[in-house]
Amino acid sequence: MTTTFVRALHPRRTSAWGRGAAFAALVWLLAPVPASADFLVAPYFAWTRNADTERWLPGGGATADFTTGWLVVGGDIGYAAGFFEPEEDVLDLVASSHVLTVSGHAGIGLPAVSDEQRFLPYFTAGFGWMRQNARDRDGLAEVTRNDPSLNFGGGVNVMILEYLGVRADLRRFSSLRDPFESPDPIVADLERLHFWRLAFGGVVRFGRE
Amino acid sequence: MKNSPLIDTSRRNFLLTAASAAGLLVSADLADAQDPRVVLDAAVLNYLLRVEYVQAELYREGLTDFNTAARIRQFDPYGGQATIDTLRGMGEQEAAHVEALRSLVTRLGMNPLPQCTVNFPRFATATELVQTAFALENVGVSAYLGVVALLRIPQVQTGVASIASVQSRHAAYVGLLNGQSPAPQPADTPRSRDEVLALLDPYIGQCSAQ
Prior knowledge:
By secondary structure, chain A is mainly β. Helix content of chain A is 13%, strand content 56%. The N and C termini of chain A lie far apart (48 Å).
């Protein structure tokens, strides 16, 4: 609405600004960068947010990325323990639970054009598999789901040395599968599972050209 | 080479059929999927079932012996036959609680805890029965209180809360029979699972499918 209003006031100027910005973005994206093809491996510690229980669950995993120019392609495996357990399970009713994600992703990242370049932000989105499991202590209730899932997020690699750095990543995972639908509407309020994951770890760079 | 309309139609039909079949397969798979978020609620319900099995059996088995005039007279200090009838009614309510909890577990798509073997020693006096009822009803109140914060599904919360309030009424009634205040303190204290199971341990045995 704001854009329309501004256009109504200054149609020519706005249109020129828009065209200019689009052209600048295009030039920026298509500008040749020095050849750089890196292979990054990033093991991490992660905290995964369960909105239902309002808890951040500890976990970990690893990401492997191939970067060339602006393109980032890779895969990730992440694990969060105790995902479906309440914060204070004084009754100790859930024996174990977890969420495991295995996914591929692609996106854009600032290319490392020189060894002096320390901060390398990126944004990726991907598709994968989300395994959810919970098991009660009596062995009467156990559920394992294997859902297709989407994820998107971004972060930054901070290279401390040429081949070694640290990484921070914030990512959202969303199941693509509907929740359990009971024959009667007792669990009708459940939504598709989704959560945020905040990860910190190291990053090792291989194959620098 | 240009495709004939016949070939186009066949290809379109094939693609539509294949897509429909794939869609059906996927949707059938998705519809049956259970959800791990209900496991905690089901575990809570099964935990409470253990308490209810013991309570229901207390009144059913315990009152069976009070069927002769001499045995019934033991209840005279507590109100006589009317009290026995009230306790029988409470036993029927405990049995109804068992059914309600089992039904909720089933509706969550999980298996309810099978019936447990419950053994009480023969109550030599009405006083023994009333004292045991007082202890077990209060175990029930503290067990229900301990699970309140764990349940996340609204209908399960409502079901459990509606049973918990009746547990409190039972505890108040048998408290009065025991000469205690029906509400001895302004707030009750929840018990942990270990505490509750330790208090049930003298009476409860194996829980297995019959």
